[in-house]
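USER: My hope is that you can spare some time for a protein that puzzles me. I am handing you a single protein, as its sequence and its fold in C-alpha cell form. Walk me, if you will, through where the backbone shape changes along the chain. The protein I mean follows directly.
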Amino acid sequence: MGMDLSGQRISSLQSTARRVQSAEFVGQSGAFQSIVETIETIAFRKSSVIISGETGTGKEMVARQIHARSNRAEQRFVPVDCTALNGNILESQLFGHVKGSFTGAVTDTVGFFRAADGGTIFLDEIGELELDLQVKLLRVLQESSVTPVGATKSCPIDVRVICATNRDLKQMIRDGTFRTDLYFRLNIVTLEVPPLRDRCEDVPMLCKHYLEKQAALYNEPVKKLFPETERILKSYDWPGNVRELANVIEHAHISSKTDTIEPSALPPDVLTGDIVLAMQREEFLSFEQLEKQLVTRALQQTHGRKMAAARLLKMDHRKLGRLVEQFDIQHSWK
C-alpha cells in the first residue's frame, strides 16, 4: 500500500529531524519541531534566508541543515564571519582580487563567493557589514556575478545566500546603518531560532548529547544528571544559549568525581540562577534576604554538608555556621 502525502511529509520531517540532531541541533520541543519543519519547507528553494536569534542559539547549525537538505548539498557550504574583517580586506575576501590590485596582493584569489559557486554562502552577523560594502553585496545579488578587486571583468556565480544576525535589522534601517534595498533583497525567508530559555524541555536531551560527547572524548562511561541538577539546568535563564549549555556540561563533567553529576559540580553562575530570577521578579531584595537564599541554596546543593557549602560559597566554614544559626536555617537534608 502506498503512503499518502501526509504520511510522506511526516516521514520526511522525522528524517530531517534526525539529520538536524546529528549536527548537534538537538531537541524535541514544539519550537524545535517548528524549526525542523521550516528547514524542510525552504531547503530546496533558491531564496535567500535571514536566520535571526540570540548569540549561541545555533544559527550556523540551522544554515548547514538548510544546505544539507538542498540540491546543493554536494557543493560547498562556505561560512563567513562578517565581524572578523572589514573594509577593503573583507571586500577582497568576499569577491576575490587580482594580482597587484593592492599592496600584498601577490596572487589572484577567488574570494568566498566564487568558492561557493554552485553551493551556499553563509554570511554570519550580516548586520556588521559597513554601508559601502552593503552596496557592493547588493550588486552581486542583483547581477549574480562578482567583480574581483582590481578586475574589470565580472564572473558569473550561482550561489544561495543565507545570512544570520543577532541584531534588529529593521531598527538598523531606521538608524541608517543598514540599507533598505539590501534588507528586502535578503529577507525572502526569515527563520527565527528561539533562545534556549523558550525551549527548556530540550535541555535534558541536549545535556545527554553533550555528556555522551564528553564520555567519548575521554573514553569514560556516560555520566548522568542528579535530578536536582537537571531541575536547576532547566530553570536557568541561559543567556549564552546552547553554546553556554555545552560549556557548562563540559565543566560539570570535568568537575564531577562520580558518575552522577550533582549540583555542586555546576558553575557558580548557574547555581545562583534561581536567585537572579527571584531578584528580577521582586522590586527589592535586602542583602540579608539575598545572603540567606545563597546559604540555603548552597546547603541544598551539598545535602547539608557545611564544609562543602562553604567551599561552594568561597567562605570560611565557621562564618557559614554562624549564618545558619543567625538565619535559623533548618531543613531535613536528603
